[in-house]
């Protein structure tokens, strides 16, 4: 798990954590994995657009199949709401430190 929230002020490189994500309009974005966390025994990743680090992050679930990990969209609204709430709590805690 990442030890801090990464953002535009982050002072180190994340070249190994780059993913190509296609949005709903078919446009590809280079995304950087900046944070991972667990909720309800599932792993999640926060990605930021590499070319627009000020933009809102995107949260994906990290699933595993046949020993291979991959990013999956969170389709279930209840799961999405729960994950966003947990992530917001993590951010608040880190901002208070």
Commentary on this structure:
There is one protein chain. The protein is an alpha+beta fold. The chain has one domain (18-96). 21% of the residues lie in helices and 39% in strands. The protein has one helix and five strands. The chain has one helix spanning 77-96; strands spanning 18-22, 28-39, 42-49, 58-65, 68-72. It has a five-stranded antiparallel sheet. A hairpin with a 5-residue loop joins strand 1 and strand 2. The longest helix has 20 residues, at 77-96. The chain is globular, with a radius of gyration of 13 Å. The relative contact order is 0.16. The model is unreliable at 1-8 (pLDDT under 50).
Highlighted features:
97 residues; 5 strands; 1 helix; five-stranded antiparallel beta sheet
Estimate nothing, just give the exact number of structural domains: 1
Going by helix content, strand content and strand pairing, the class is alpha+beta
Taken from the alpha-carbon principal axes, the silhouette is globular
Low-confidence stretches: 1-8
Query: What level of helicity do the residues show?
Result: 10-25%
Mean pLDDT comes to 83
The DSSP helix count reads 1
Pfam families: DUF1292 (PF06949)
InterPro entries: UPF0473
Short note summarizing the structure:
This protein is 21% helix and 39% strand.
Secondary structure layout:
Layout: E1 18-22, E2 28-39, E3 42-49, E4 58-65, E5 68-72, H1 77-96
Antiparallel strand pairs: 1-2, 2-3, 3-4, 4-5
């Amino acid at each position: 798990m990442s030890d801090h929230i990464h953002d535009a002020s982050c002072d180190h490189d994340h070249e190994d954590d780059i993913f190509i994500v296609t949005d709903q309009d078919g446009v590809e974005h280079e995304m950087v994995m900046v944070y991972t966390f667990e909720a309800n025994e599932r792993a999640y990743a926060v990605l930021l657009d590499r070319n627009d680090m000020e933009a809102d992050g995107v949260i994906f679930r990290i699933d595993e199949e046949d020993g291979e990990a991959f990013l999956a969209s969170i389709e279930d609204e209840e799961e999405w709401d729960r994950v966003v709430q947990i992530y917001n709590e993590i951010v608040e805690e880190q901002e208070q430190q």
